[in-house]
Design goal:
mainly alpha, Four Helix Bundle (Hemerythrin (Met), subunit A), 7 helices, 73% helix, disordered N terminus, CDP-OH_PTrfase_TM_dom, transmembrane helix
């Protein structure tokens, strides 16, 4: 849950529907921290669905892939509304910084590792999760050094989830060309390598910024 000016730039935050939903949520007893916690449940739902899809075939597999997509998108919606509740509705808490970071790391790991096991490539799933965590670590380390949050890509959290969602949608049609898990495997490779590049870019920018900072 974002509690400061260091927020990921999102066009959806200024949309009418997002503002309307935030007003409705603000009128309830729901807190931003609780929404952050719910994002982990959405990620767990997506992870379980991917695992079940990996064991299934036919219509059942397709249904579980749809559930996985809904879980991924539910996770992103929670990430959107926790920050909006905290800032726009003034419900930020002292624990907000913790709940802003930890659920995202849990969610990324649950989803990416589950996809790896579902497609028979657990090492690739763990590698994608580790690289995703590395991008967040470099950003958080930069903030700890007094630098602005760096949400640059090419494979930041929104891009990771968008790529995985798109690959899952296309996988629904994979039986048409007698395919199965190929697109999800490619997506994991792109996420792993793209996240590594993202961490390197953020690290390079941080190093240059620290080197250029005046010393007392």
């Amino acid at each position: 849950m974002a509690t400061s000016g260091d927020r990921r730039p999102l066009a959806s935050r200024d949309s009418g529907w997002a503002q309307a939903v935030t007003r409705r949520l603000a009128a309830t007893s729901l807190t931003p921290d609780r929404v952050s916690q719910l994002s982990m449940l959405a990620a767990a739902l997506a992870a379980g669905a991917y695992l079940l899809a990996g064991q299934g075939d036919g219509v059942a597999r397709g249904l579980w892939l749809v559930v996985a997509i809904l879980g991924c998108q539910g996770r992103l919606l929670c990430n959107l509304f926790d920050g909006m509740l905290a800032i726009e509705s003034g419900k930020a808490s002292a624990e907000g910084v913790f709940w802003n970071e930890v659920p995202d790391r849990v969610s990324d790991t649950l989803i990416l590792v589950a996809v790896g096991y579902a497609v028979g490539a657990p090492a690739l799933g763990w590698a994608a999760a580790a690289m995703a965590m590395l991008t967040a670590y470099v950003r958080a380390f930069g903030q700890a050094c007094g630098r602005p949050a760096d949400f640059s890509g090419p494979m930041a959290k929104p891009q990771r989830m968008a790529l995985l969602t798109g690959a899952t949608l296309l996988t629904l049609a994979a039986p048409l060309w007698e395919g199965r898990d190929g697109l999800l495997i490619v997506a994991l490779w792109v996420i792993a390598l793209g996240s590594l590049i993202t961490a390197w870019r953020r690290g390079r920018r941080l190093r240059l910024a620290l080197g250029a900072a005046p010393r007392e």
